[in-house]
């Protein structure tokens, strides 16, 4: 136990000192191997063994899709389409931002791509309409993790892989939480803007005009809107497996980018592959290293120690879930989403099973927590990115971000944690018994 | 001192290395996409199941993962929490960067050794995949290459940053001018 | 001393219970000197990884499939038609049978491991997805069914001779693939495995009865060499005693889960004597030559002779 504590202290120290996450964890791994006098020859082969899972190839493929979408400016057509519906409410453009982030994030699954692409297009428009800058940038920042919850999502694929659950079930588990979060964000956006002055609202239009605009913008957005339909439809109806669907999505995005939106070039495509390969490499080598650490923690019987500790406190699943949430929230503050998941899920699975909590329910809890993790300071990559994309000082974003966390994220988290049906209903309905 | 680093980063070796990395990233991505699409095509159009295609995927995947991570080291784009550097000055940031690279280099050395030892074991035991009989060596070699490149880049950047730190005042002046 | 025993099967599976009882027996008989801790559910890695680690000594013991990544001769254990029905298989797994002797020598060829014996896991059949219908399961006609077969060449040859289309699907995607209809069936589990994992997506279960799985108990040579003769004997005895219990449990589990499948409206398709004989013939003609490439003909003859003796 002391050793584990020391190893974790090393990790936290390294992370705070800006050492890349992977090397922080690798230091801890090597420290433990050395201290416990293990023969280290298994580290490499074990890492190889676990990362050679085929489903993990979804990660590079979805990163590719996101990157192609970003480069071909598919986002613009999505925004125009959503704007037709809610553009005339005070704060409507904010809702457009949230919904567009959800749709764009659905396919790309990348919060970074969502924030850069959707934020980059919609924030200037919001400023033009008189939105307070801090509020606008904070809203988009809070909305960008939606793609993590709305399927397909490479984070959920990694969760399914670590926890050995069905990918499709994990995808479905986070859909309703994602919708709740989007709704909470939209509502708090409107409420927070009630007192704001100097904001333009679009003029009322006739029904005929509305239908006309719906048709024009709809046609423009159709190829982009088709993407999730093809991926999810194809997967749930049995045309291809989740892994294959990711490759099909790349195959689909290429001609759409080249010939329909006409922003993609061959050179950009190669750059996309290089960027996707790099992003994936960075993530997957991290997976490789994190899994060796979790193997050592298993050999040290950490899961059993934690179960014993938690059982000593309470046998009530609700209390256990509270502890899990607090732990995830804390980890989310100092770690990025993928590392926090890789570190905790292998340990949490035996624990939740012991206390009668469904791993699919946990998928939703972990999903919401990790989404929140990327915007909670101090380690808040999306908050910093949001400030950069929106060209706002970060301090101006802090208060609105905090409000969104309290009025949108926390309610979502509480709902998801204490109403398991929200995450289990959809998988049960579509996949039967889980 | 500066000359060494500049010479290196402007050398053919440096450029070619980077190009090879890019080449591998493109080829491995394409292999994954094409293989998976062919599998779907084979199943629905030709009613044919390709046996052992997963072994090709694993091979391509490991080259992508580890060359990608090396390229990430080249770009210095590994995931960091960046907590402290938000609050300290430029000079302290540079010091943190040097510390971080030193950790990377120190951790890198045992990793290089271990991955090399794994390759030796592969050769000794002649392991191969079951269907296509692809030697394990082919898909495990990128692990060794990747860790070596990552450590190499960390070492190069340590030298660069130490130089920057030494000449911090001069460079600041040059910037303001 | 505490030793690590790795199994890829989940906790509660009867073979793992057998391993756990064996560990208790060994601990008791050695007065606590040999304390074996079971790591289940593949916590320490996949079976190929674990085998390599046992070879190198970073994991002490393994309760797993023999992986042909290290020696193609291991394929003999998964070759169809070697023995059919529980009585024959149990006889085959006796410590003194040519099969076990062969496995022992094959394991010797992999540096660093010592083979103790094989627990009978199950007789595997084919679970067929709900939407798929196999009209004549026991002949060689085209089944129009995409079947996932473990990557053992002889088993693949056998199922393709029976008229299945073979496909590779990662195990993690088998459930959803059967559910969505991409996959027509899977040949990698016995009744308990099918019921516990695939119950909701399986429409029928075909008992082929002539392909069985074993879990081999293998100890790292480094560890084995530290044991004195008395300890070694205790381990052999504990294994043999539990092998009988596990075989019994395997029979019970087989019956129990076939009944549960029937209750869950899964159609059970059972061959009659002629059909069984016909399929054994297919296995001999098609599958055995594939394995003989690695093992030679003689071992197959020896096994046939051994099994035909009363
Ligand atoms: Na998504
Ligand atoms: Na955070």
UniProtKB/TrEMBL annotation, chain A:
Record's GO cellular component terms: plasma membrane
Gene Ontology MF annotations: transmembrane transporter activity
Start and end residues of each TRAP C4-dicarboxylate transport system permease DctM subunit domain: 10-422
Keywords: Cell inner membrane, Cell membrane, Membrane, Transmembrane, Transmembrane helix
Domain of life of the organism encoding this protein: Bacteria
Topology of this chain in the membrane: Multi-pass membrane protein
Identification of the protein by name: C4-dicarboxylate ABC transporter permease
Native organism: Synergistes jonesii
Phylogenetic classification of the source organism: Bacteria, Thermotogati, Synergistota, Synergistia, Synergistales
Automatic annotation (TrEMBL), chain B:
Lineage: Bacteria, Thermotogati, Synergistota, Synergistia, Synergistales
Family membership noted in the UniProt record: Belongs to the TRAP transporter small permease family.
Domain Tripartite ATP-independent periplasmic transporters DctQ component: 33-162
Listed name of the protein: Tripartite ATP-independent periplasmic transporters DctQ component domain-containing protein
Keyword rRNA-binding: no
Chief localisation class: membrane
Membrane-topology annotation of the record: Multi-pass membrane protein
Keyword Methyltransferase among record annotations: no
Subcellular location: Cell inner membrane
InterPro entries: DctQ (IPR055348), TRAP_DctQ (IPR007387)
Keyword set, alphabetical order: Cell inner membrane, Cell membrane, Membrane, Transmembrane, Transmembrane helix, Transport
One Pfam family from the record: DctQ
Membrane-traversing stretches: 23-42, 48-67, 96-116, 136-159
Highest taxon, organism lineage: Bacteria
Cellular component GO terms, alphabetical: plasma membrane
